[in-house]
Design a protein that fits this description.
The chain has one helix at about 10-15; strands spanning about 20, 30-45, 50-65, 70-85, 90-110, 110-125, 140-155, 160-175, 185-190, 195-200, 205-215, 230-240. It is built from 1 helix and 12 strands. The protein is elongated. With about 240 residues, the protein is mainly beta. The chain has a 10-stranded antiparallel beta barrel. Helices cover about 5% and strands about 65% of the residues.
């Protein structure tokens, strides 16, 4: 099933339990920056894994407008290295993740709620080399577009917990295999997937976070090589420091 109105049902069900709705007010615009470090793992069950050999390092910036219905914009970049295990192994493969989100906030007592749209671009700089069993490697990229709803509950002063539910609208996986005999660069379309993020702010500066994706098997590749992107999961676990 591709993206449709059915994907909104979990969000609407959660809103049904909210007792009151009010206007979210921000007296002045806010600009924030943060640093994070995280463990990264990508898995195609019974096929392969890619895991961070050293923590991913990230930088991000966020902006919240100042009016009755605030709009927030966030952008981040993560850099690191991964180790591959599947048909042999490889190590020290550079990885880059870029993410941008825009959302609109309302206040629903006792929760603060945002609805938004996001883009996530990942580049796995895996090629051109050989695995330990002499298989060719190749660069890979993925682009997810998604909608989300986030729910924040304040615990104490400067402490909160946020849950974010993400629904994939469209995914595009590209593989750069021009250097392999009889192949050219090709791509696969991904139509189904979801994600869940959790952040626990222990203070105004420090928080722990977990981000995840579960993506269903892709359509066959555009060049009709018979290639697919198998069902896969991604997780990131780390800490974040705000300045």
């Amino acid at each position: 099933m591709s993206w449709s109105i059915k994907n909104f049902i979990p969000y609407l069900a959660l809103l049904a339990f909210a007792p009151t709705v009010g206007i979210a007010q921000v007296s002045e615009s806010r600009l924030s920056t943060y640093f994070d470090a995280s463990y990264y793992a990508y898995e195609e069950p019974n096929v392969m894994t890619k895991k961070s050999s050293i923590p991913l390092i990230g930088l991000g910036v966020g902006y919240t407008s100042a009016h009755n219905y605030p709009i927030s914009v966030n952008a981040s970049i993560n850099l690191g290295q991964t180790a591959y295990e599947g048909t042999g192994t490889t190590n020290n493969d550079p990885l880059y993740i870029l993410k941008g989100e825009i959302s609109k906030q309302i206040a629903i007592s006792p929760l603060s709620v945002k609805f938004g749209y996001g883009l996530r671009y990942l580049y796995d700089d895996w090629g051109i080399k050989k695995t330990t069993t002499n298989y060719d490697t190749y660069d890979r990229s993925s682009l997810y577009s998604y909608i989300f709803a986030s729910f924040t509950r304040k615990l104490k002063a400067n402490q909160f917990v946020t849950f974010k539910l993400k629904t994939l609208m469209n995914g595009k996986q590209k593989i750069f295999i021009d250097h392999v005999n009889a192949y050219q660069k090709t791509s696969m379309t991904q139509k189904r997937g979801f994600g869940i993020d959790v952040e626990w702010a222990m203070s105004e500066q420090l928080s722990l976070f977990a981000e995840s994706w579960k993506i269903k098997e892709s359509e066959p590749d555009a060049k009709d090589y018979g290639l697919i992107e198998p069902e896969n999961t991604t997780i990131q676990l780390g800490f974040r420091h705000r300045f």
